[in-house]
Predict the structure.
Amino acid sequence: MAVITIDGTTVQVRPTGNGAWNSVVVTGRVAQKSTTWGLTLRPGQLGQALAAANEMLNPGTAMHDRLAQSTANALGLELRDNANLATTMVGTGVTANVLDRQEQSGAATIFIVTTVGATPTCTYQLEGSPDNSAWSVLSSSDSATPTVFSTATFTITTATTTIRYVNPAATSARYIRLTLSANTNVTSTIDAAAV
């Protein structure tokens, strides 16, 4: 299992609350103005957006990410650190990668994109760990009911995009992964975003 740290994630941006997430264009760990921001920024705002993206790209502490988010929010943008946990995963077991949120804690978002064959079903369990060794079930919610958290497994039976929110109270879960079980003809691509 590879561990993806915040330094190794892809920083993404979109207009606040809507629109597609766009990856920040990076050259040598420096954000580029050619990034698709999702809205038109005036020259002064573009400089601030670049500074916020660079703060996310080169974090020192969790406070740096919080400052970057505040700056982006003032411009009408959202930033996130996005990591791929599994690509076209079939079968059962834990995801190929684990997200290490380092100093960050609290909220995170899990994105599961599935393709299916005949009679599809797959069960998912979201797990967290303070040390990448001892794992326990994480409380999460479905995007349709974002304030109703549960530690129960959830099942996907169709080709879809499923969004799960990690309970913001899950502060001891530095590391995040998923375990798949009872998989019949479901292929999953799973990303985790620290926000």
The CA atoms of residues 148 and 161 lie 19 Å apart.
